[in-house]
Amino acid sequence: MPEKPLPENDPVVSKSLAPHYVISMVILMATLFWALWDEDFGQRPWKTFQHEWKDRYSTFLKTARSQSRDSQKEIEGNADYQKLKQDYESASQNAAPRIKEINEKLRDLSAKILAVQNVFTDRRAYVNALTYSIETETSASSKQGKQKDLEQYKKEKTTVEFPDGKKQDFDYEHLEETYNDLKNERTQLSAELGELIKPVNERKEKLDAFVSEHMVSLTPTQMAGLQDKTEAWTPKILQINVPEANIVDRCESCHMGIREPVMLTAASMSFKGKKPDEYARAFTSHPEPDLLKIHDPDKFGCSPCHQGNGRATTSVEKAHGTYEHWLWPLFARGNMEAGCQTCHAADMVLVSNDVGWTLSDGKDLFRQRGCVGCHRYEGYDKEPEDLLSVAQQVKQLEQEKKDNFKQADDLMKQADKAESNEEANRLNERAIALKVTNSKLELRIGQLDRSTKSLLQDMKKVGPNLKDIRLKLNKNWIPVWLKKPSDFRATTKMPNFRLNDEQIKAISAYVWQSALADPLPKHKPGNAAHGKELFETRGCLACHSIGEGEELQGGTFAANLTRVGEKDNYDYLVRWVHNARERTRPYCPYEKRDIGPEDYKKKGLPYVFDLGHSRCPNDGHELQVQNMTVMPSLRLSPQDAEDVASYLVTLKKQEPSAYADASFMDDPNLKAEGKKWVRHFGCAGCHEISGLEDEGRIGTELTIEGSKPIERLDFALLTEIAQRGGSEPITDPDDQARLPEGPAKHPWYDQKGFFEHKLAEPNIWDKGKDKPETEKLRMPNLHLTKEQLRALTTFLLGSQENPLPASYQYRPLDYRRDIQEGWWVVKKYNCMGCHQLIPGQRTSLMSMTRYQGPDGQEQLPPKLLTEGARVDPDWLLRFLRNPSLNDKDTNRNGVRTYLQVHMPTFSFSENELGKLVRFFQALARQPFPYIPEEVPVLTAKETEMARSLFSSTAAPCLKCHATGDPAHDRTATAPNFLQARGRLKPDWMERWIIDPQAISPGTSMPSGLFKRENDHWVFSGPTPPSFQGYDKDQTKLLVDYILQLTAEEQRRVGAATGHARAAAGSSSSGAKPAGNAGHGMPE
Amino acid sequence: MDWKQLWEILSAADNVPIVAMIPLLAFYMYLAWKQAHANDLLIAELDGNAALAKTHHRKAWPFKPGWAKEVHVWPFLLRVEFLAAIIVTIILMVWSITLNAPLEEPANPNLTMNPAKAPWYFLGLQEMLVYFDPWIAGVVMPTLIIVGLMVIPYIDTNPLGVGYYTWKQRKFAIGTFLFGFIILWVSMIFIGTFIRGPGWQWFWPGQTWDHNRLIYEVNRDLPDLFGITSNWGKGIFGALVVGGFFAIGGMLVHAFFRRNNPKDYKRMSLLQYSIMMTFLLTMFGLPIKMLLRLLFHIKYVWITPWFNV
Fold this sequence. Notes:
Chain A is mainly α. Chain A contains 42 helices and eleven strands. In chain B, helix 6 (134-155) runs antiparallel to helix 11 and helix 9 (231-260) packs across helix 11.
């Protein structure tokens, strides 16, 4: 400092700060502009999106418009179009001169009216004001004075100057009259004009409708409209606001193409020759417009389905909610359908076009893989809970009944002592009323008893009954199985519990020692070759599979039987195949023990228990008389059952004797230890185990698992790893392969990451932890595939506590509720393994080699797409109860006797039968209850006419339809007409006869048998002469005839057409020959 | 060393002020010390040169005859202040454009965040809650701090060192301020921001904030160490210890103050002196209590049914 020369003047006083000010002011201004820019664009990135949108969409529309113009030209070349156009032009030419005339008149009139109106309204205003003041005047004299003024005023004349220069004087009345006349005249003329234009407009509309109907996309005019709209667009926030549901979604501020009426793809929204960028992807239209039709965005918004932060507009991350401080990030692409679950939790099947399959898979898996055994989930497996609540109700009602009786007794006693007769009568009446109440209560109890029976029948377990394992299993196989079930059977439902050897020993000892040791009837060996054929043709493979890996055939619903011979006893298999529901001993839920012959003997009752004999001999309560399996009875004869079982025991890779000895299982010391572990791992969730029938679920409830805050999901020592990403903690290659997105590359500290890792390796959170055996994570490894894991994750992500109002939840009360409930039953018994219920759905059988080609396809079970419209619900009920429709000969199909696959007997409870019948009715939108249509009795003449149609050589019905004649039925591929009565609905039959392809695509029932003539359906073939002058629907006649057909009549007609059949092929009638084999479709 | 963790804390939008404060504090300390040092030299020079003292202007700059001894606030001070205001405005604008308010998710009353931290300027108070019960840390102490700041002008009897930086003339005042501001206030905010992790556990900078971390730490009350179990005993014992601290500490401070600030001591009334002593000793009490807790795991010294110290 001292070196520097001191300035002359004091720098504090003299130094200029101007440069400092200039610089800071410049920076300040720059900052100000920056702030303004930030306000306008930086904080509003959607504006950039909207500018891009304008550019790209206009460009797109320009190209699309020229294409659309081309296709419009093509349509305009069409003769129909030309005709319509001519119509339009001639009509408009005809009307043109008169229209012109009227328009001119109207113009004149309007000018005149205007001239009068100017004067008239002014005067009327004065008159009205004066009238008001007269009305409100209190003094009579001034009232009179004013009245005079008014009359005076009305008489005064004013001049109106008409447009043609003419002037005329009017007093008030005359003016009003003139004004009204002019207006009337105008109205009349306008009406006439409307009448004149109407036919012209109608033709114009027809013309336009023709074009838009024949255009694949929009017409050029519509496109031009869109283009104008787009080009005139000024950037603004687009918002869906639904106050009652608290939805504020501004998603469309960037995603501007979502609801456009043209299909926009990322490619069509990119600039030519460039890859789709961020903008192009944002501008695509909604890929499933059908879903938007059901869920109107103006009511549902976007975020209720997709999640994300609908209000945010400042950045993509914030709007999608993919930052740490938003609890509900956008569902990932693979888990998109989780959004459906948030409202549709009560639906078991939820499919619309391509959407919903993953979620529906997830729902299936959750049930089939036995997740419900450990985890409670609202709606799943509710029978045990319902049973409990019914039992409580019964108890309560019984107490009430007892109290009532006591009170009634008291009242009667009081009545005896009553002082007056009236008093006594009153008390007696009260006692009687109580007794009546009691009889009502008894009826209610009876009702509840029946629902107990239903519930016991409906209650199923995912795994087999372990009380039977002494009878069923190869003892030495058990420990091997427990070690790792998926090693023995790769596709098994039984998950891997990571048991150590001690646990395996103890568990197998417990289940073995607690199992029943009743004797089993011995069976002679059957014919394995015949058994194989039965197994492959009866429909076993709709649920079960056989073969491993690539060779796997059949359904995945039930066990793969490739190695069943290594583990199962022959005698038990015979019983199982014959009727899987047959129990060794009934179980009494009241006494909580299995009831044996000794209990029956004590009461002197025969040891018989089945659905008809389901009361406990000791206490009269309902027994569990069935195995809790969904496996139905295929109504095999005992001999056939032996054959199938003989075949099954040949299925093995090694001899049963090759398993290492496991005699430790008889060690009674292991039993207590074993029970502890069986309980610990919740085995009773899926299996029926002696002594553990009432065990609760051991897992956490998952109904709203998806809305658990991330902090409640314990990532344990992996929290940091999950938050930072980059390294995958799952090291086991099998488990790693289950992760749908592969090993983690990005941070996965979210619900999705948790569920995926947990499902891929359930004990992953034990990694690095030092825990005693009893505290380790118990959830077993479900050995899922990638797709299954994704489906389950989707399901769990969507399992949320929904913040939307109740009206948004899909819980209908009308027929749709029957559909909802029905799907649960349909899925429970795997009906879709054999039947197609959703258009496009593949059944297990369809993909098997046996059922390929036309011959194979005709052996497929029927499609049930319109079952409810087709059959009488009463008949359906009967059929579902006993599909053989026969009490004696049950080894047959009731309807389609020609099918090798048999509809099994599921022993549905009353509850489930009701649900199924209502389901099919509701699915086809049939009114319920069903009131059958009256079938008119045909006159002799009508019968004759109908018979001639029925036996027409052009359409020989009896050629394909079975008749009951064994020789004929061998080749028949359609059901017997005699079954139609009481089964089919007449209106459906009529529609079926007219166009079977529309109801069941691919059926071999010929279409085009009837044609429309003079508003009636008439036979397409040569009409028999008796039809001269018949002016009703011939289809109706035929249906009525079929419904009145008797076996005798059918035989007669069959015999008569027997020789005509040969000629049918060469018939040149309009009807197609019905010679092709039926495809196993309805009729 | 977990650099990622450290960076996350340093770069959090909430922590910008405290992170900026550390270098700024160092810089202004340096600047103040430099000026104070120059002034102290000047004061020494002027003390020895009475003539110069009469004409020398306000700065520790070389003397030049003709320069005004004092200048007016307007325009000479205000024009600099206005420039400063502009620069601060620029900084605030840039800051608010580039960093939006760090808003978090909708609050969930069933789930509190961990660690749940107050805004940075309250972290010192929050840290105090570790060492005292809420009544003391949340009500008594903040009140004392405010009242203490309010009484400073009334107990400050030193007429020197007003309007310029100096150390020699105001050693006691500056020393007390630095102790209170840097040791107690800034360092506690620092601890709250950088050291306290999940579960309000002590994590050294660069240590991973592991939510699963478990530590064994048992805190005892001082009376327990002496085997005092009765409530009366605890109350009396605590009162004695705290009273002892004030008595012994008071004597030490008294001796120190009389020796080093005899002039101030003489100028102060008994009321002024005792108020100063009370606040000073209470202020010293805070770090002593912190050390007792952090090093010796002593929870409370004085336990009564109404408050704990």
